[in-house]
């Protein structure tokens, strides 16, 4: 906890030191993505025909898999459908403005002298792998939940209290798996930007970096995500509600929406800075070695004693 607080303080200090630089160039790079994600979450479920199709397909899938028809799974289905719909509509902005802004911020914090175009390519490469990684994590989670509910029905336990308990446990389990997957993906993007290494190797190294530090990573991600959720709620209350009520002019509503999107961009910048500081706090050293005509990557964690990891094309080995 103490180390996490130090990383947060250092991240805020770094942001304030470079306040003018980050809040002008970086924030305006991320502004189109911020506006797209706020608008998609607010307007797409109401105006798009894609949202009910995804919702009905997931509802049919849950029913076919034997999931109970509980209120918790209805909320989960609603949130997953909304997230998928929003991700589809913001996908072009994510591949361009979001990743370019992330590469720009990492380049400004990285002392290697590599430009942002060098960082963007591996980050883009890693982002596609992250997408498949999250899909695989979701599929594996739903498969385990399907086995759990099938086993519960097989032994004849179908009481309402047990159903509510299993539903709550399933939602918590799904949330934990998804949170860990998102933390790994965030660290993989940081690794790609800091080292210029993209693809599955960035994800593997992110998993090694988070070894024994998952709780710290989740704690570091919590404040920013709470801030982003608060900004999304503010956008719903001030902009969307103001637009439908019509109590203010359209120009004032749009101006307030741009300002809220700008705040969303600021939090994206802070999240990227926190990820970079967390990456630097791991204090790792790497060396490429040859062993039996194969190339291995040795990663040494300075903070943790007696740990050496080998990453090879076919092997992963821990030495005593």
Automatic annotation (TrEMBL):
Residue intervals passing through the bilayer: 26-46, 84-106, 127-152, 164-194, 215-237, 257-279
UniProt KW keywords: Membrane, Transmembrane, Transmembrane helix
Domain of life assignment: Eukaryota
PANTHER family linked: OS08G0107100 PROTEIN-RELATED, TRANSMEMBRANE PROTEIN
Record-given protein name: Transmembrane protein
């Amino acid at each position: 906890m103490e180390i996490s607080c130090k990383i947060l303080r250092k991240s805020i200090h770094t942001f304030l030191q470079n306040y003018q630089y980050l809040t002008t160039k970086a924030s305006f790079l991320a502004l189109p993505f911020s506006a797209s994600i706020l608008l998609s979450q607010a307007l797409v479920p109401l105006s798009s025909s894609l949202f009910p199709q995804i919702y009905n397909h997931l509802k049919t899938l849950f029913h076919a898999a034997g999931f109970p028809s509980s209120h918790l799974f209805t909320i989960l289905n609603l949130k997953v459908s909304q997230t998928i719909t929003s991700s589809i509509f913001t996908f072009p902005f994510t591949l361009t403005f979001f990743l370019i802004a992330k590469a720009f911020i990492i380049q400004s914090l990285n002392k290697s002298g590599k430009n942002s175009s060098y960082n963007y390519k591996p980050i883009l490469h890693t982002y596609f792998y992250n997408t498949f990684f999250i899909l695989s994590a979701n599929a594996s989670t739903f498969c385990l939940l399907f086995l759990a509910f099938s086993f519960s029905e097989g032994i004849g336990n179908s009481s309402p209290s047990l159903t509510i308990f299993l539903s709550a446990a399933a939602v918590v389990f799904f949330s934990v798996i998804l949170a860990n997957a998102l933390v790994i993906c965030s660290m993989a993007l940081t690794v790609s930007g800091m080292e210029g290494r993209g693809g599955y190797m960035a994800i593997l190294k992110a998993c090694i970096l988070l070894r024994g530090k998952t709780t710290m990573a989740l704690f570091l991600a919590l404040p920013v995500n709470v801030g982003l959720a608060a900004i999304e709620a503010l956008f719903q209350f001030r902009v969307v509600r103001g637009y439908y009520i019509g109590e203010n002019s359209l120009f004032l509503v749009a101006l307030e929406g741009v300002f809220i999107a700008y705040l969303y961009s600021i939090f994206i910048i802070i999240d990227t800075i926190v990820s970079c500081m967390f990456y630097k706090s791991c204090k790792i050293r790497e060396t490429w070695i040859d062993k039996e005509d194969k190339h291995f990557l040795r990663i040494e964690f300075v903070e943790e004693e007696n740990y050496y990891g080998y990453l090879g094309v076919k092997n992963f080995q821990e030495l005593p």
